[in-house]
Amino acid sequence: MVIIDNEDIIGILRNRKNQTSTSLGFVTDKQTMDDLNILGKYKNNSVYSIFNKVITVGGEKLLDNMFQHPLIDDVKINERSKRFAYFGDREFKFPFNAEQVTEMQNYLSMSGTGSFFGMYTSTFRKKWLDYLGLPTEYNLVKTGLYATIKVLKELKAFINAIEVQDPKNLYQEEINAANKVFADKRIVLLLNEDEKQPISIFKVAKYCHLLKNVLWQEMKTVEDMIYKFDVAIAISTVAKQRGFSYAKALPGTSNTVRIEDLSHPGIRKAVHNSLYINQEHNIMFLTGANMAGKSTFMKSFGISQYLAHMGFPVPARELEFSVKDGIYTSINVPDNLNMGYSHYYAEVLRVKKIALEVSESKNLIVIFDELFKGTNVKDAYDATLSVTEAFGENRNCSFIISTHIIEVGEELKRCKNLQFKYLPTIMNGVVPTYTYKLQTGITTDRHGMMIIENEKILDIILSNAELSL
């Protein structure tokens, strides 16, 4: 407790600012992202890897941006969810070949010269090099132009199919912009070209000038539309395959989280749990034996909240939540040898950082797993009790706090805004088994020594000791 007092964590929480939150974006940090395993294209079982089923490079960049910047506007969140869900309810598949989209992107990104004469001169130079046995540059132009023609034809057919099936679809604004491009007489001539037949050098230069100089902004709009379709179809497919649902976002003025049948997205056939947090009971105090599933449950909750703020499908049957300003977790806090921090001091500094964020009157989601497990039982008891009570004075945040020190729970019953949940252990003789189902109350399970005895650790040590004599 001396270190807690020295860092003035209780004072920080009890002297929080009273102004309304003015957050400009969803706030979090690397520790939280690592705790929840959110990012990482090649990271094993990351949340990102679950959803990264896009086809195009541009689609992947858009997906990256969405993962890096969750939303804090309930209207925008719900609108994005509806646009994703639109494709989940229909049998549309992404119609584009990834290689051709990349060739189109590379072709359109080649700098134009600004004038037709300049474009013709540049194209003729490349063609002349082709005659001289150096075909690379001209082949890139031809390949890119043919790919662009094919992709534009496929896009036109795709949006026509959407309009025929659903004239009042959620993408009509983008479709109207694309139809305006396709109505341009110059684009009509372009799309009438047979990409299987050679195009004269004059036409190649003319089309390059048209696409790269005259209609470059329109082509950028077309590219962006393709990437949006790529992401939306990929996300809706993941939701359908995994049985995820879309959350309903509520204004941030309330403090509500209601989840039915929550599970961890990285665990197939996971056990589901339901929970309800509101203004009157905004702290869940979670107990349970080691291996009972506390960490997995808390990670499931954190992941679902992060995805919900992105407007992405969540691993739950139903989820309704008030929009928050951000999320912070303390689950796998490492020590810091470079700074000379012990594991316990690193835990204290982590709690202090989160306390400072809460004191700024931000509406946050906060998750603490096994508070102060790096110190002795007496200090951990005192610190957990004091810090939980101090956090409990803040009613605009949602907290889940777990501990292995179950005696703290009895003292915390005096805090009226706490709800007590536990994950039980069922004894099968001397072998503990786990239901992973959330129950109301405080656990009385203590099976640490029983597990040690089941693993015969003492027998191994004593046997080795006898052999060494």
UniProtKB/TrEMBL annotation:
Which N-terminal stretch is annotated as signal sequence? none
User: GO molecular function terms here?
Assistant: ATP binding; ATP-dependent DNA damage sensor activity; mismatched DNA binding
Which Pfam families does the protein's record reference? MutS_V
Give the species.
Pedobacter hiemivivus
| Membrane-crossing segments per the record | none
Q: Per its UniProt record, what InterPro entries does this chain match?
A: DNA_mismatch_repair_MutS_C (IPR000432), DNA_mismatch_repair_MutS_sf (IPR036187), MutS (IPR045076), P-loop_NTPase (IPR027417)
Q: Which residues form the DNA mismatch repair proteins mutS family domain?
A: 281-466
GO annotation terms (biological process): mismatch repair
Q: Which SMART domains match?
A: MUTSac (SM00534)
Query: Lineage from the top down?
Result: Bacteria, Pseudomonadati, Bacteroidota, Sphingobacteriia, Sphingobacteriales
- Establish whether keyword Hydrolase is in the entry: no
Q: Keyword annotations for this protein? A: ATP-binding, DNA-binding, Nucleotide-binding
Q: What is this protein called?
A: DNA mismatch repair protein
Q: Which Gene3D superfamilies match?
A: 1.10.1420.10, P-loop containing nucleotide triphosphate hydrolases (3.40.50.300)
Q: Which residues form a coiled coil?
A: none
Q: Which domain of life is it from?
A: Bacteria
